[in-house]
Amino acid sequence: MAAEAFVPDDFVVPRELVTDEFRLETLGPQHNESDYAAWTSSMEHIRATPGYPDGRWPYPMPPEKNLADLKRHAGDFANRTGFTYTVLASDDGSVVGCVYIYPLKSGQGADVRSWVRADRAELDVPLYEAVAYWLKNAWPFETVSYAPR
Questions:
Q1: Helices (H), 51-145
Q2: Which end of the chain, N or C, is surrounded by fewer C-beta atoms within 10 Å?
Q3: Residue 50, Cα to own-chain centre: how many angstroms?
Q4: Cα–Cα nearest to 113, from 62, 149, 71
Q5: Cα 6 to Cα 84: distance, rounded to the nearest angstrom
């Protein structure tokens, strides 16, 4: 028996989400330098963010490994098996965080995580609220696991 697709074949996956404070766009290798700078400057803050309870990530790694991760996320997006977005600040376009949308281990819905840089911590709740609303209204998931703020 084949596994159920994460999203239906006819679902048009959103390429971005725009708010007054930030913009989400698909994460890719072109973000390596700014993504790396964002999370490496905020590892303890990210570990304290709801949804990151096990401490497995983030962990120190060289930029080349981060690039490989970004390529993997871009491949998942292209294959419709997971959707990762970089979060860009509206004021200066800098990377301020990330949103990950992957299947729940049960295969029945989405497991969603997000983080923001420590120096932009005030965006955590607005990001959570915007993404939760977006998932409810623009995505086909019946079940979403996204640690509340």
A1: 63-79, 124-138
A2: N
A3: 13
A4: 149
A5: 14
> CA-CA distances (angstroms) from residue 129 to 16, 35, 139, 142?
16, 22, 15, 18
Tell me what pLDDT residue 119 has. Answer: 96
Q: How far apart are CA 88 and CA 121, in angstroms?
A: 13
Whether omega before 58 lies within 30 degrees of 0, making that bond cis, reads yes
pLDDT at residue 3 tops 70:
no
Average pLDDT, the chain: 93
Distances (CA, A) of 2 to 5, 6, 105, 107, 125: 9, 12, 16, 12, 38
At 137-146, the pLDDT tens digits run 999 999 999 9
User: Which CA distances in Å does 121 have to 88, 106, 133?
Assistant: 13, 31, 20
Strand partners, 114: 99
Predicted local distance difference test score (pLDDT) of residue 17:
97
Residue 63 and residue 33 in contact, taking contact as beta carbons nearer than 8 Å: yes
Q: Do residues 62 and 56 lie in contact, with contact meaning Cβ atoms separated by under 8 Å? A: no
Distance, in Å, from the CA atom of 41 to the CA atom of 61, rounded to the nearest integer, reads 13
Residue 56's pLDDT is what?
78
Tokens of 23: 């913009």
